[in-house]
């Protein structure tokens, strides 16, 4: 029997252990997509207790607590933090096979030096240890980032944001880690939302343009892109129901937006046509700027209406959506390619059944503009577990070039989430190590070192064009 989560956790062969301990483990972290708050970095926040840093905003954990029958009072309610932590500890001991079990214990090991097991019985011990440790200066937000060997972070930011915290961080010579904005224009695209006109007013004020037409909207977005670019933005991100392609004439798109600004509701067909025009426009702008376009799709959001009305979005009530016509995604990329406006593109689906469709579409649009210009993103959200990562990387290897993969991201709101990169690298090394030991790839240390370093870090440095040195 192997020890619980020891130094060789998830590493089942000698080659896997060599690849991880000699190569992957020593690589820094580049977190090119997350949801952390740049203000907390700028102010170098310190957390009062482990509940604040672990359970605040973490809907992954909230879902599991609900599955364990925990009252909402102890999840998002006003229960004391100690009681919330107890309920989480009692839930965690049932989470066998769940990545939250592994992530939680990796975080306890790496940040708090705790190598025991968290459960209902040990909750007080862990609570006391973590809270004492959190009072140390080494556990401020900036020092948590430093401890994790992070070189660069891309947050997720609305076009109307002033980015003042990014500016403050960039101007602070005492913090060496780059914190860059990433462009997330969902609110500018989602014409069907009831507050859409109010949002366009806010965006227009940020850009200094009154938005009364689609032409105005494009002008405002260009101005804000220029501002983001001046602060180092190298990537956009889009949360889509699916990657649609329903092209309409410019006159029709203008008419649809005019209808919406007049207070009328748009039809589903009008919505899809508008969104197609929006995505076609912004993609061309990204291509001109050298930005990468991230497309996240396959999620059906806010399914529990009563809880959405109570708590709002991003609180643990989303699920996989199995409607995603790959033909429309291929048509969208083809239209951009025909217009010489296809940017570097990273495609993520929440539905693991889409892996092979994505893998086959990638190969249709690769060219010499960039190595691995069209990427399949890492196993996302409900798939960022051992099985999901193995499946995504195996599919990518079967249909493309795994060696060009840009690797892992945290997609997290927590400053303790960086061990997710370690978790990914252990799975990566075990997968490749198994192929080597099975005679499917030679034990070529030079080639394997380049590949593991690339997927762990260097490929992302080069793909996005960050001002970083390869390792």
Automatic annotation (TrEMBL):
Write out the entry's keywords from A to Z.
Isomerase
Set out the biological process GO terms recorded for this chain's protein: D-galacturonate catabolic process; D-glucuronate catabolic process
SUPFAM superfamilies for the chain: Metallo-dependent hydrolases
Q: Which InterPro entries match?
A: Metal_Hydrolase, Uronate_isomerase
Pfam family name, one: UxaC
Q: So what EC number does this one have?
A: 5.3.1.12
User: Reaction(s) catalyzed by this protein?
Assistant: D-glucuronate = D-fructuronate; aldehydo-D-galacturonate = keto-D-tagaturonate
Q: Which GO terms describe its molecular function?
A: glucuronate isomerase activity
**Top-rank lineage group of the source organism:** Bacteria
Pathway this chain belongs to: Carbohydrate metabolism; pentose and glucuronate interconversion
Q: What HAMAP family does the annotation carry?
A: UxaC (MF_00675)
PANTHER family in the record: URONATE ISOMERASE
What family does the database annotate?
Belongs to the metallo-dependent hydrolases superfamily. Uronate isomerase family.
Q: What protein name is recorded for this chain?
A: Uronate isomerase
List the source organism: Eisenbergiella massiliensis
Q: What is the lineage of its organism?
A: Bacteria, Bacillati, Bacillota, Clostridia, Lachnospirales
């Amino acid at each position: 029997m192997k020890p619980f989560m020891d130094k060789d956790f998830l590493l089942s062969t000698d080659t896997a252990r060599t690849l991880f301990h000699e190569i992957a483990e020593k690589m820094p972290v580049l977190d090119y997509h997350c949801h952390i708050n740049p203000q907390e970095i700028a102010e170098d926040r310190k957390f009062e207790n482990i509940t604040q840093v672990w359970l605040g905003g973490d809907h992954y954990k909230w879902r599991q607590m609900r599955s364990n029958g925990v009252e909402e009072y102890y999840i998002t309610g006003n229960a004391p933090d100690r009681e919330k932590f107890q309920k989480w500890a009692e839930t965690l001991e049932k989470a066998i096979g769940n990545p939250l079990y592994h992530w939680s214990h990796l975080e306890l090991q790496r940040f708090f030096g705790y190598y025991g097991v968290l459960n209902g019985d040990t909750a007080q011990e862990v609570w006391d240890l973590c809270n004492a440790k959190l009072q140390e200066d080494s556990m401020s937000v900036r020092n948590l980032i430093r401890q994790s060997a992070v070189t660069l972070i891309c947050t997720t930011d609305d076009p109307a944001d002033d980015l003042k915290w990014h500016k403050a961080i960039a101007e602070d010579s005492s913090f060496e880690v780059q914190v860059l904005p990433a462009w997330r224009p969902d609110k500018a695209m989602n014409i069907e939302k009831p507050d859409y006109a109010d949002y366009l007013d806010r965006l227009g004020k940020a850009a200094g343009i009154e938005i009364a037409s689609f032409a105005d909207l494009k002008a405002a977005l260009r101005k804000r892109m220029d501002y983001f670019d001046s602060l180092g933005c190298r990537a956009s991100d889009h949360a889509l129901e699916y990657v649609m392609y329903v092209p309409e004439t410019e006159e029709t798109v203008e008419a649809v937006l005019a209808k919406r600004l007049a207070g009328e509701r748009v039809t589903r067909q009008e919505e899809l046509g508008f969104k197609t025009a929006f995505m076609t426009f912004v993609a061309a702008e990204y291509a001109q700027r050298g930005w990468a376009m991230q497309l996240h799709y396959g999620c059906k959001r806010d399914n529990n209406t009563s809880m959405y009305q109570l708590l709002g979005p991003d609180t643990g009530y989303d699920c996989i959506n199995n409607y995603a016509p790959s033909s429309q995604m291929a048509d969208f990329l083809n239209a951009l390619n025909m217009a010489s406006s296809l940017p570097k593109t990273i495609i993520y689906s929440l539905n693991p059944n889409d892996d092979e469709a994505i893998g086959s579409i990638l190969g249709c649009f690769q060219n010499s503009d960039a190595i691995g210009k069209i990427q399949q993103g890492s196993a996302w959200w409900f798939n960022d577990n051992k099985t999901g990562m193995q499946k995504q990387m195996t599919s990518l290897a079967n249909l493309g070039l795994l060696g060009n993969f840009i690797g892992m991201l945290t997609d997290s709101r927590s400053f303790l989430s960086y061990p997710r990169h370690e978790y990914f690298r252990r799975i990566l090394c075990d997968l490749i190590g198994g192929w080597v030991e099975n005679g499917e790839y030679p034990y070529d240390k030079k080639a394997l070192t380049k590949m593991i370093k690339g997927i762990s870090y260097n490929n992302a440095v080069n793909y996005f064009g960050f001002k970083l040195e390869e390792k």
